[in-house]
Design a protein that fits this description.
271 residues; alpha/beta; Rossmann fold; 41% helix; binds adenosine-5'-triphosphate; binds magnesium ion
């Protein structure tokens, strides 16, 4: 049975604007899933429905087989943690340590356990040496790691990362990949919204494409990034490696190594 399920979910904002239409999805524990789509496609709205920050205007969200219709947002967020698109919408404490400790403290854990959870989450997110700093002493992109650690410290089964790759340099993007792998290894479901197609090709096996309020298609990165009609319809670009391959008449590759192999094969055949 899937741990998290959306059944024909739609959402309209109070002003009547429909942002998500008829989305059905299932997520298993231990899988890392990417969500891609143009600005305004309905990605953030859809994931906010998963942890109760928004409630469906139609359809239903199930967590561990149980309808969340009559479950409080606080209860839902114990199981599904959402890391905000903008870290400044989430951060409100005056040290990084307090920010990460806030969730576990609220869970009424003992001081010793809270300390352990903070230390472990900070370590995973590369924040051990800055725990006593004010969050705003870190750059916007680094503040994103504070918000990720704050959610990890609460230990929800599902972790949703909303555009963690925005503005990140290569080293931080690699750290993000490592965090996602580690969480999946701990049997968490990790759902990541991103505009970084290279990151999707490298880190995920399952990709959901949103366009015009709806889930348009799901598949492996290879299926998605070589469906050029889908990409054009959804306003998305192939990763650079696919664009390069296409320019030299090669298809279906996702990595530099695969491209190199196909080029060598091609050269050998034309010798
Ligand atoms: N509070 C709101 N009230 C009315 N409309 C909203 C509200 N929040 C978002 N929208 C609209 O809903 C649509 C979907 O927004 P959403 O934030 O889900 O998109 P997104 O796919 O996450 O985009 P982005 O990549 O820019 O973050 C957009 O047209 C947006 O303007
Ligand atoms: Mg968004």
């Amino acid at each position: 049975m899937s741990f998290l399920k959306l059944e024909a979910v739609s959402y309209s904002y109070p002003n009547g604007f429909e942002a998500t239409r008829d989305v059905s999805l299932s997520f298993e524990l231990g899988e890392a899933v990417a969500i891609i789509g143009q600005n305004g496609a309905g990605k953030t709205t859809t994931v906010k429905l998963m942890n109760g920050l928004l409630r469906p205007t139609k359809g239903e969200v199930l967590i561990d087989g149980v309808s969340t219709k009559h479950v409080t947002t606080a209860q839902m967020s114990k199981h599904v943690g959402y890391v905000f698109q903008n870290p400044d919408d989430q951060i409100f404490q005056d040290t990084i340590e307090k920010e990460i400790a806030f969730g576990p403290k609220n869970q009424k854990l003992s001081a010793t356990v809270v300390k352990e959870k903070v230390a472990a989450a900070a370590e995973l997110c590369g924040l051990t040496d800055v725990l006593h700093e004010h969050p705003y002493n870190l750059s916007y992109s680094k503040r994103k790691f504070i918000t990720i650690a704050a959610i990890i410290a609460m230990d929800p089964e599902v972790v949703i990362l909303d555009e963690p790759t925005a503005g990140q340099d290569r080293e931080s993007t690699e750290l993000l990949g490592m965090i996602i792998k580690e969480l999946a290894k701990r049997n968490k479901t990790v759902i990541t919204i991103t505009h970084d197609m290279e990151f999707v090709a490298k880190e995920f096996q399952r990709v959901l494409v949103f366009a015009d309020k709806q889930l348009r298609r799901e598949g492996t990165p290879r299926e998605i990034f070589w469906d050029e009609q889908l990409l054009a319809l959804s306003g998305l670009k192939q990763p650079y490696i696919c664009q390069l391959a296409k320019a030299v008449g090669i298809r279906d590759v996702l990595t530099m190594a695969e491209l190199g192999k196909k080029v060598r094969l091609h050269e050998k055949n034309s010798d």
